[in-house]
Each structure stands twice: as C-alpha cells, then as structure tokens.
Design brief:
Radius of gyration of chain B: 24 Å
Number of strands of chain B: 0
Largest sheet of chain B: none
Distance between the termini of chain A: 23 Å
Largest sheet of chain A: none
Number of helices of chain A: 15
Structural class of chain B: mainly alpha
Order of helices and strands of chain B: HHHHHHHHHHHHHHHHH
Number of helices of chain B: 17
Distance between the termini of chain B: 32 Å
Helix content of chain A: over 70%
Helix content of chain B: over 70%
Order of helices and strands of chain A: HHHHHHHHHHHHHHH
Oligomer: heterodimer
Chain lengths: 321, 297
C-alpha cells in the first residue's frame, strides 16, 4: 500500500460510513455480532479503565492510607491537602517550566529537521533514519547515557571534558539546583528522544503540500526561502502543527521516566506524576491523597486540551487543507 | 532488501516537488548537507558513547584522559553481564520479551475486533459505545496509574506477568485507530465474501485481516515499541526483582550503590538492540504507520 492511499482512506471515511452503515447486512443478527466483536474489548475497558477511574474518584473522598477499602469519609480534605501541599503545587510549576521549554523546542527542532530532510536529494532515507533512531531508545536508557556519560558531574563526563578543554571547571549538572543546570539535562534528553518522531509527522505533511502552490507563489514573485516558508509552508502545516503541539503538551504532562531516573535522589525538579508516585506508592501509601492529586491533574489536562483546541482551532485546519 | 524498496517508491514522487521549493544552487545544497550532517552526528553521539562504554573497562570509562576511541574492545563484558548474580538481567530481558509479545498480540486481537465492530457492524447503540471509548482518550493513561495499581493489587496481580500484560490490552486509542482504518477498508471485498455465504466472523478472518496485514504490522510495531520501552507501569507492578522488565532492571542500576559502568552500559546497549533492529528493518511500516496514525492523536 502506498502512503498516498493510506492517507486518503481515513479522511473520506466518516461521511461514507454514516451514509452506508445503517442498512447493510441487516438480516443476520448484527446485534449479536456487534457484541461478539466489541464485547471483549468493552469488558476490559470497563474493568481496567472505568472501574479504576471510578474507584479513584471514590477513594479521593476518603482517608485511605495503606488501604484501598477505606471507611472514613473526609469530603474534600484530600483535595485541600494536595492543593496546600507545596510539593504538589511546586510540581505543577515544574511541569509548566518544562512544557514552556520542551514544547516550542521540540516543535522547532522537528520542523527544522523535516525541512532539511525533505530537501535532501541523496541519502534522504539515511538521514531520516538517523534522526528517527533515538525513538528506539527508552527514557530509562537515555537517562542512563545522559546521567552517567554525557552530563556526569565528574571530570570524565563528556560535557565536563569538553568544557575542560576551554578551562571551565566541572559542573555538577544534576546534584545542585542552583544554578538549575538539570533543566539542560532533562530537556536535551527528551529533545533527542522525541524530535525524530515528530519530524516524521512533519515530513508526511510536507509531502502532502500540493506543488502547484509553490509554482503559483513563484509566479506571484514570492522569493524562495523565508517568504515561501512563511506564506505557504507554515500555513499548510497548520493542522499538523496543532496536532504536534497538542501531543507534545500531553506527553509533557505525563513526563515521569527521565525525571524519576535522572533526579531520583533529589527533592527538586519533580513533575506531577513523580510527586503522585511518591504520595501514593511511597512511604505513606496515601491512596486517598494520591487519587485526589490524579483527579486534579486529569481535570487540568482536560482543561488545557480543550483551551488549546479552542485557541488553535483543532480540526479546523484539517478541513481547510 | 525488500523492506527498503517501498520507501524509495514513496519518495520517488517527492523530488519533483522539492526541486521547485529548493534553492537549487550548489552552494545552498552544500550548506544543507553540512547542516544535516552536523545534526546527524549530534544525534548519533549518544549511541556512540553507549557502544564505546559498553565495550570498555571501567578504568577506560572513568580515566583521566578522555579517549574518544577505546584502545581495545572488551567483548567479554557481555558474558560478565549475564554472569553477574546481583542483577537478574537475563530474567528481566525474558520478562520484557514475553510481556512485549503477548501485549502486542493481545492488543491487536482485542482492539482490532472492537474497531471492526464499531466501524462495520450495524447496531442501534453503536454511537454510544463509540463515545464511551472516546471518553477514555481524554483521561491520560499515565494519570490513571494510581487507580489502576489499586485495582490490580486488589486482584492480587502485583509481581505477576498478568498484572503487566492484561490491564494494558484495552487501549481506547488503538481501538480508535482500527476503527478509523476499517471505515476506509474497501467494502466490495467484504460484500463479495458475504455473497459467498460467510458471516461477519468468517469475512473478518478470511478477507478483512489478510488484506490488512500492512496496517496490523504498523500497529504491532508501534505497540511493541511502546510496550518494550514502558517504565512507569512495570515499575509500579514489578516490586520483586523476578517480575522486573528490562527497563526496571536498568533503572535499578541508577540507584544501586556499587557502580560497574561497563556492565550498566552493556545492559543498556542490549536493551535497545531489539528495537534498533525493529527500526532498521521495519521502517516502512513504522514510518507509514506513524505518519498515518500519530497525527490523529
């Protein structure tokens, strides 16, 4: 199957489906078949998604330490406790700083890589693979390389070695929050890991831009380079950009692996999920407060997603394409 | 190599577009290659460091004079890693392989069936069922780890492969992707099968699935990669070292007091090897699958 067909297929699909679905193959017990096909998935979805969410909501109103079947109702106390807990609110700040760095940087880097790779005449597949390959690495593996080899705070770390050539003293990248060098470590690790993935999305979108647009622009006298990019390429990538930013934001909210591994022994730089992990599964095993935190976080994520959707017009760009 | 050919075919159409957009001059193209090359080198440095350290001695890694090229390669580090009794590394690799394969097969089975049912089988309340699936996409999976752990621990599945595999099978997102795909699947093929007297079930297995192997392969690759690289859930579930996946085992090195650099890097290298192979050989499906599906997230 070529890329072109697989792109067109889902887009034309919904209209076709609503028109043709209701009246075909009616006679042969389609209700039974519907449940035969979707039943196993739905049961699993209820048991492993809906029940935990409901349970968590319920737990968040109880005092639940070391137990998941508590009997002491505390109302909104857990919520108050989490919102007054400076570690938890601090973790929201950590996330905000992280997102403010990682979302625009990844967007710019992956778009830049896609533009470069798209222009190559030779070795295009090679360079695409090179940029895409880090996606194969887990966050744990990357954290190990970053912590123990590149940003090791001692003299044999790569960065400190390179800085040493210029006479710069060893920098304790992770062991000291002031100055907060750990941000460089965290952000560069994630940038390396995920830029290639989003580059693929941009590459696909770039190849879907009709060449006629560039021809028309050239006839109208738009200079190649910045002008064409600003007035043709960027608007045409709007839908992809919106989706990429949304995916990046959600991914940033869920950041856990690299923070947990790079800053395991520190008290700074804890994003919400790491904080929740320690609240619910750490020494205190406080499932009530942990659940309240998870609910707060979920609400926040939903709000940000909806807001972003409204501002960026999620979906609108796709239709215009 | 068969896997690479489709890539070429996919891109064969591209140069025509590019020639118009590109600056064209030799100077511009040289600059472009230099910039791409430098970026490429930067992206490869971490891999190089990993391999270099995996095949070095601790003394060479932590030595005063940083050598870019190691003087002699210690292939014996591989054997030493698996003989090391303090970390059950072989066991964790095995766990990851079992979990990865079963998780992938299970997800494909459960989610593709549901996706097909939602896309193609007429049922009065199908829309409502579909909304129930869509709602789960709004709740980020990572945020549900606390409630999920509560549930799984009350089922007594902590430290078991069941606990690692089963809760992850019911991915609303994968189901959604399959539904989108099946909506676009050519109806004529199924109609022909049904003329020949096959039911939904028969038509699905004998016509739809065999004609959708590309898509199944793409989803399988993506599912396997995310399963292999998953960390939070295996960390929560695998409290006993015998239930560790390879990611949890790697992480344990970072908190461990005794640091054997060469073993840690060898373990890391081995842990990413399967995926590097997957990437290099299954690029066609991967890139196609991601370009096609990732955007809809």
């Amino acid at each position: 199957m070529s890329t072109t067909t697989s792109h067109e297929v889902p887009r034309s699909a919904p209209a076709e489906a609503t028109a043709a679905r209701p009246r075909r193959f009616r006679r042969d017990g389609s209700t039974v078949n519907f449940w035969l096909f979707t039943g196993p998935f739905l049961i699993g979805l209820i048991v492993f998604v809906y029940v935990p969410i409901g349970w968590s909501l319920w737990l968040s109103f109880f005092e639940a330490r070391f137990t998941v079947t508590p009997d002491k109702f505390v109302g909104f106390d857990n919520y108050r406790q989490m919102l007054e807990n400076s570690n938890f609110t601090g973790s929201l700040v950590t996330f905000t700083v992280f997102a403010a760095f990682i979302v625009p940087l990844t967007w710019a880097l992956s778009l830049g890589l896609a533009l470069m790779v798209n222009r190559l005449r030779f070795m295009r597949a090679f360079f695409r693979s090179v940029f895409f390959l880090p996606t194969a690495c887990s966050y744990v593996a990357a954290s190990l390389i970053w912590k123990m080899s590149i940003f090791s705070g001692v003299r044999f770390g790569l960065m400190n070695t390179v800085l040493g050539w210029f006479g710069v003293e060893n920098i304790a990248w992770l062991a000291n929050p002031d100055p907060p060098w750990y941000w460089l470590v965290i952000v560069s690790a994630r940038l390396w890991l995920q830029a290639g993935f989003y580059m693929i999305l941009f590459l696909a979108a770039l190849q879907n831009i009709p060449p006629e647009l560039y021809e028309a622009a050239a006839i109208d006298g738009a200079g190649p380079g910045w002008q064409t990019f600003r007035h043709i390429t960027l608007p045409q990538l709007r839908a992809t950009s919106t989706a990429v930013i949304l995916l990046l934001l959600v991914a940033a909210y869920q950041a856990f692996d690299e923070f947990f591994n790079l800053l395991s022994k520190t008290t700074w730089g804890r994003p919400p999920l790491v904080e929740l992990y320690y609240t619910a599964l750490g020494q205190a095993q406080d499932y009530g407060a942990g659940s309240a935190g998870a609910v707060i976080l979920t609400l926040l994520i939903c709000m940000v997603t909806l807001l972003q959707g409204t501002f960026m017009g999620f979906g609108r760009g796709e239709k215009a394409e | 190599m068969t896997a690479v050919t489709p890539n070429r075919a996919t891109h064969a159409a591209a140069p025509r577009k590019r020639r118009r957009t590109g600056r064209g001059g030799t100077l511009g193209s040289t600059g472009l290659y230099i910039a791409t090359g430098v970026a490429g080198l930067l992206f490869l440095v971490p891999f190089y460091l990993l391999v270099r350290n995996a095949l070095s001695t601790d003394a060479a890694i932590t030595g005063e004079n940083w050598q870019f090229f190691p003087t002699d390669l210690k292939w014996g580090n591989i054997g030493e890693l698996f003989d090391d009794p303090t970390v059950p590394f072989a066991r964790s690799l095995w766990n990851s392989a079992v979990v990865g394969v079963l998780h992938t097969l299970g997800t494909l089975l459960v989610c593709s069936l549901a996706g097909y049912g939602l896309a193609r089988i007429p049922y009065r309340h199908a829309d409502k069922v579909f909304y129930a699936v869509l709602v789960t996409l709004m709740v980020p999976s990572a945020v549900t780890f606390v409630p999920s752990f509560v549930l799984v621990s009350s089922l007594g599945w902590v430290d078991s492969l069941r606990g690692l595999i089963i809760p992850g099978l019911f991915s609303g997102f994968t189901c959604f992707l399959f539904r989108q795909y099946f909506l676009g699947f050519p109806k004529e093929l199924e109609e022909a099968a049904r003329m020949d007297g096959l039911g939904y079930w028969g038509a699905y297995w004998r016509v739809v699935v065999p004609n959708s192997l590309n898509f199944f392969a793409a989803i399988a690759t993506i599912t396997f990669i995310s399963g292999w690289n998953a960390f939070l859930w295996p960390l929560v579930i695998g409290q006993d070292p015998d239930a560790w996946t390879v990611q949890v085992a790697l992480s344990s090195y970072m908190t461990n007091q005794t640091v054997n650099f060469h073993l840690i890097f060898m373990a890391t290298a081995i842990s990413i090897l399967p995926l590097v192979f997957v990437f290099l050989f299954l690029q066609r499906w991967l890139v196609q699958g991601i370009a096609q599906t990732g955007i809809k997230g």
